[in-house]
Design goal:
It contains three helices and eight strands. The protein is an alpha+beta fold.
Length: 227
C-alpha cells in the first residue's frame, strides 16, 4: 500500500510533539470499511502481509496486541490459518521523514531587541556540519548568512508518517469483512512506540461504521505507582 508523505501544515507544529508518552496523547486518523460478523464462536489467525515479517519477533509483539483486542471482543484464536474462520493480515511501517520548516520571523525580535533588522528573510542551507537552527548554531554562518539576510529565526523539524493496515477475510470464500488503515504524523520514527498506539487507535470503537474516517487520540500511558 502506498504511504502518504505530505507534510503537516505550518500552522500547528507543536502538535507534532504528541508522541510516545507525551501528556497530550497520540493523535491518529483511522479509516474503516467493515462487514464484521458479531462474535458467535468465530476463530481467527493473524499473519503478516509482508512475507519478510512472518516469523519475526517484532511482528509477533505487534500481533499479540491485536490478538488481545480480538479475544476481548469475543473472538477465539485458531491454531493455524487453515483452521481459522477469519484471517487477519497486518502491515505497518514508517516513511523516511520530510523536513518541516517553521519561520518565526526576525531572530532577535522573538527574544527582544534587534527586531528592526528583520524583513528580508533567508533560506536555510546545508553544510558539512548538517542543518543549522537559526543564529544559535555556530556552524550556520557562511553563504546565506542570517545576519546578512535579516536575521530571521528558523526551526527545522523532521516529520514522519506511520501507518498500520489491518485486513480481515473469511477463509471460507476469501471475502473481506474488514479493511482498516490507521495513520499518524510524528516527530519520532520509532515503530516500538508508533505501532502499539496505531493498534490502539484501530480498535477504538472497533469495528466502527463502514466508510468512516475518524480522528482518534490515544490517551498517554499513566505512570505505574511505585511500590
Amino acid at each position: 500500500m502506498s504511504l502518504s508523505k505530505r507534510l503537516l501544515t505550518l500552522a500547528a507544529p507543536v502538535a507534532l510533539l504528541a508522541l510516545g508518552g507525551c501528556a497530550t496523547g497520540f493523535p491518529a486518523q483511522v479509516s474503516r470499511f467493515q462487514a464484521m460478523p458479531a462474535p458467535q464462536g468465530q476463530s481467527f489467525a493473524i499473519q503478516a502481509a509482508d512475507p519478510a515479517d512472518r516469523g519475526g519477533l517484532e511482528f509477533a509483539q505487534y500481533a499479540d496486541l491485536v490478538r488481545r483486542h480480538l479475544t476481548e471482543l469475543g473472538y477465539t484464536e485458531a491454531p493455524s490459518p487453515q483452521a481459522a474462520t477469519l484471517v487477519v493480515s497486518l502491515d505497518y511501517g514508517v516513511d523516511n521523514g520530510k523536513q518541516q520548516v517553521v519561520d518565526w520571523g526576525p531572530s532577535f525580535g522573538r527574544y527582544g531587541g534587534f527586531g528592526a533588522y528583520g524583513g528580508l528573510g533567508y533560506r536555510p542551507f546545508y553544510s558539512r556540519f548538517g542543518y543549522g537552527r537559526g543564529f544559535r548554531s555556530p556552524f550556520y554562518w557562511g553563504w546565506d548568512d542570517p545576519f546578512f539576510f535579516g536575521g530571521r529565526d528558523i526551526d527545522v523539524y523532521t516529520v514522519y508518517t506511520s501507518f498500520l493496515d489491518m485486513d480481515i477475510k473469511r477463509t471460507a470464500d476469501g471475502q473481506s469483512v474488514f479493511e482498516g488503515t490507521a495513520k499518524a504524523r510524528s516527530r519520532s520514527d520509532d515503530l516500538r512506540v508508533l505501532v502499539p498506539n496505531l493498534v490502539e487507535a484501530m480498535f477504538t470503537g472497533f469495528p466502527g461504521n463502514s466508510g468512516e474516517q475518524v480522528r482518534i487520540t490515544v490517551a498517554p500511558e499513566r505512570p505505574q505507582p511505585r511500590r
